[in-house]
Specification:
heterodimer, A: alpha/beta, OB fold (Dihydrolipoamide Acetyltransferase, E2P), 3 helices, B: alpha+beta, eight-stranded antiparallel β-barrel, 9 strands
């Protein structure tokens, strides 16, 4: 009887620990290792969203290629900007927020520059398509 | 002479018109709720905002998937079960600064602002009013505001398993560093 009780307690503990580490405290997705769900040109991605046909990209990992016009560089972050339009918020296009490890590589590039990158698509805010946790594939 | 006057007037008008709109694409919104079961905190550093210093028009565009939580599981629940960000990816505020004439955009200082307009979250729109401040520093305008919203007002349902354990009101803090829109 005691043996059965002990086994039940051990299983419950193991289940609890598993839940704590792998469910409650599971790590954020590493998008650098994620396979892209879509591969297309930057222009095509922007056209699809601005034409109201971008819904299927929301929440997906997307690989894009095209000419990045500029990089917004802060102390720790680089945002690559593809510009396709002008509107009430100024430039409109795609804004790609990079993970910190690409900081120096992106800073060394002279813009405009052709690039291929992938990132998590957070959506379209009526002016820009936002890609987050981006990593550089080719420049 | 007339031509010079006309050119000067047009130049001044063009300059003034350009300086009227202030924008940011890197505004910050945080939200915080303190329930008996869980404290929930998240931050979004990619908020779009525009302010027209003449008309007082004030706009926010916030992508729900850009909110970052400390715990991945919480972020997942927020997107899937609460705000349903696949269905409603964007939250917006469209309104105006009612006392825009009291703010002198050419004079550094801290000005109180009364803001009201329509806030849309989770596909539901409510008319809201709040107060905040605009700090004029050189050509920049730093906007700050703090207010609460009720989840129920935006049809955001708390799952019955955690009902009463998660706060029904959320504290929202906005910090936006607006810069003049250059053309």
């Amino acid at each position: 009887m005691k043996k059965i009780l002990l086994i039940v307690v051990i299983i419950a503990l193991a289940g609890g620990l598993y839940g704590w580490f792998f469910v409650y405290n599971k790590p954020h997705t590493n998008f650098e290792n994620s396979k892209p769900d879509f591969k297309l040109s930057a222009q095509q991605l922007f056209n699809d969203f601005s034409g109201g046909k971008g819904e299927s990209y929301n929440g997906k990992v997307i690989e894009i290629n095209g000419t990045a016009q500029k990089a917004d560089i802060s102390d720790t972050l680089v945002t690559l900007v593809f510009v396709f339009n002008e509107g009430m918020f100024g430039d409109e296009g795609i804004r790609c927020l990079f993970i910190p490890k690409f900081y120096n590589r992106l800073k060394a590039i002279t813009y405009p520059a052709p690039v291929t990158l992938k990132g998590f698509c957070a959506g379209y805010n009526d002016t820009d398509v936002i890609l987050e946790h981006c990593s550089l594939i080719k420049n | 002479m007339k031509l010079i006057t006309l050119t000067t007037v047009l130049f001044l008008f063009a300059f003034q018109a350009e300086a009227q709109r202030y924008i940011t694409k890197t505004g910050r919104i945080t939200f915080f709720s303190d329930g008996p079961l869980e404290k929930i905190e998240a931050v979004n550093n990619g908020v779009n905002s525009a302010l027209d210093s003449q008309s007082g028009m004030f706009v926010f565009k916030v992508l729900m998937k850009s909110f970052v939580f400390e715990k991945a599981l919480m972020q997942e629940h927020f997107n899937e079960n609460y705000v349903e960000s696949d269905k409603y990816p964007l939250a917006t505020f469209k309104g105006k600064v009612k006392n825009i004439k009291d703010i002198d955009f050419t004079k550094p200082g801290i000005y109180d602002a009364e803001v009201e307009g329509d806030l849309t979250i989770h596909g539901k729109t409510n008319h809201v009013a709040t107060t905040g401040t605009f700090t004029i520093e050189g050509s920049d305008v730093l906007g700050k505001s703090l207010f609460t919203i009720k989840l129920a007002d935006y049809n955001i349902k708390i799952p019955s398993i955690v009902e009463g354990k998660i706060a029904e009101e959320i504290l929202i803090t906005t910090t936006i560093d607006l810069k003049p829109l250059k053309k």
